[in-house]
Each structure stands twice: as structure tokens, then as C-alpha cells.
Amino acid sequence: MATPTPNPSSRSSSLLERAAQVYDFGSHLRARQPLGVETPGAASALPVQPLPVEPAMVEDLNSPTLLAIPEELRAPVGHELPDDFYDTPELSDIAAIDRGLLAEAGMIVPGAPVGPLAEEFRLIKRQLLITRERIARDGQPDKARTVLVCSARPGDGKTFSAINLALSMAAERDTEVLLVDADFAKPDVLAQLGLAETPGLLDALADGDLDVEQLVIRTDVGGLSILPAGTRTATDTELLASNRTRAVIARLLEANPRRIVVFDSPPALAASPAAVLAMLVGQVMLVVRADHTPESELKQAVQRLDACDHIALVLNAMSFVPGAQRFGTYYGQEIGK
After folding, report:
1. Domain for residue 137, yes or no?
2. In-domain check, residue 255
3. I want to staple 305 with a disulfide (CB 3.0 to 4.6 A). Which of 71, 170, 278, 312 is the partner?
4. Burial, 320: exposed, middle or buried (Cβ in 10 Å; 0-12, 13-18, 19+)?
5. Pairing state of beta strands 217-219 and 224-227?
6. At what angle do helices 116-137 and 158-170 cross, to 10 degrees?
């Protein structure tokens, strides 16, 4: 009994044929070697006849059309991947700290072996972190995350101390540090780190629509960010004394709950912003240069900063007596000053 031949016009459409009615495969067709043709060095394959392709399934290859997903088959709005899923971080967003400049200035160099200076600032930051916990327990959690580094007079080493303190705190496992250059008359933080000047704190204080967090510079030192001083103005003290300053500081703290903000301010006896900032922070680290800062000036500086309840003194550039080294022999080197 003869087997009836199927009628092509009566059979149901295959999956490929149904797909061809929705998608355009014409621009993706490539010439392939049909099955059953021997290739040199290969075993002979069984002869297989190529599947018939209906003319409607192939369009003119000289006129390729765009392969697109029909509107009804696309993912509903709100279910597709967000655009930033495909974004890759730009290396230009991360500023590189000049380790060479740090080494030349005798500062802490991230990644270098721990030396006497790094150990000194470990002791300093530990006391500040302990005081931070006390301030937080007293019901001022935001103020507890702010520190002002100041000095009585120029040349006492406040910027040197502020940068080293920030580098030391950034090494903490559960802490990130934002170093703010608030010495508006003579900003020097960016230059010390080998970074270019950009808009900063003063710009955010002057423009209420400017988000200060967008001005923060992320660095290649883990846990360390910088906020520049910004565009100079003759009304820097008045800007600091405005309510806008409190809103800016609150924004910086809100943006990163792990963040501690360290302000490098001008000398207390040389410029007025230091006294204004002292009202806004939880702690003041007052740098005193050995054999340089008179006791009378130190007392005046403390009086100007007394709006802050917690003032710690740090003695800078102290000379060690020969035979009474503090960390030199422990770290395999002698202290020269």
C-alpha cells in the first residue's frame, strides 16, 4: 500500500516558518557548506538533502533590513535592565594621589611600611575616635563625625597634620574620610597631594542649588576623598556663618554613613573662619609647633575655639633626646627630629 504524500499546502507551519513571519533573517543568512559534502582529511558524512526554503522566508540579501523585536514581544517598561547596568566606571573619576610628593614632604605614604610617623598618627587618631564615641553617646551623632584641624599661627604644621590624619583614618576598616580644605585664603591640600584645583566648598555655600557631593573628589587611596576649598571670595566667613553651611555638612554626612569629615582650617589667630567652624564640629585638633608657638598665643587660640567642647593639643616637630627614642629603634630606624 502506497504511503500518501503530504500536501505542503495543508501541513501546519513549522516553528522556523512561523518565526520568519515575525523576524527578518535575511540579513543574517550566510553561505554554509551543505551536509554530506566531504572535506579533505575528514570522514565522509552521510548525504543529507538541505531543507527546502520557501521564497517568502528569504529577502533580497542586497537590501538588508534591521532585525528588530516586535513591540508586543519587548519587556514591559520598568522590567528592562537599567541603563547604568551597562555603564563601566570611568578611571577619570578617580584622582591619583602623588605618592612621590607625600614622600618628599615626609608624610605618610599609603601602602608603604609603617614607620614612626604613621605610628604617631595611629595614636592620635585613636584618641579622636574614642572621643567620637563619647560625643555620639551624648546624643550628637553627626557632630561626632566631624573634626577641625587648626593651629594658632601659620607655620605650625596644621595642613601637614590634617593630611596625615586623613590618610591614617582612611586606613580604618569601618571608616571613610573626607578631607575638606577650609583654609580659603591659602588652600594647599590639593597641591600637597598633586591634584588640580576644582570647585569646592565655597562654591557649594554660595550656590544653594549646587549639590556639594558632586564636588567631592574620589581618590585612589581607599577610603579617602577630598573636597577642595573652591572659588575664593571676600565673604568666606559670612558664608560659613550662614545656615547653608549646616545644610552642606549634613549633606556630606548623609551621603556616606561611614564618613568622617576632617576640616583643614586657617590658623585661629590669623583668620576668622576657624572660630566659625569650631561651632559646627565635634572636635578640634589644635596643632602646636614645638619651640615655635608661644604659650600666650596658644591660650588665645583655645579661647577663640572654645565653642567646641573637645579640644585636643598635638605637639608637632618635637626633637627627641638621644638615647630616648620613642619608635625609632622599634621600626629599625632612628628619629632625626
Report:
1. yes
2. yes
3. 278
4. middle
5. antiparallel
6. 80
Note the pLDDT tens digit of each residue in 168-212.
999 999 999 999 999 999 999 999 999 999 999 999 999 999 999
**Is residue 163 included in any domain, yes or no?**
yes
CB within 8 A of 17, min separation 6: which ones? 54, 57
CA dihedral 238, 244, 250, 255 (to 10 degrees): -110
How many helices (H) does the chain have, and how many strands (E)? Answer: 10, 8
Q: Spell out the residues 6+ positions from residue 38 whose beta carbon is closer than 8 angstroms to its own.
A: 44, 45
Task: Give 172-190 as a DSSP string.
Answer: STT-EEEEEE---SS--HH
Name residue 147's beta-bridge partners.
Answer: 262, 283
Domain of 108 in residue numbering reads as: 95-316
- Residue 235 sits in a domain whose CATH number is 3.40.50.300
- Opening angle at CA 100, ends 162 and 192, nearest 5: 35
pTM for the structure as a whole: 0.70
Domains in the chain: how many in total? Answer: 1
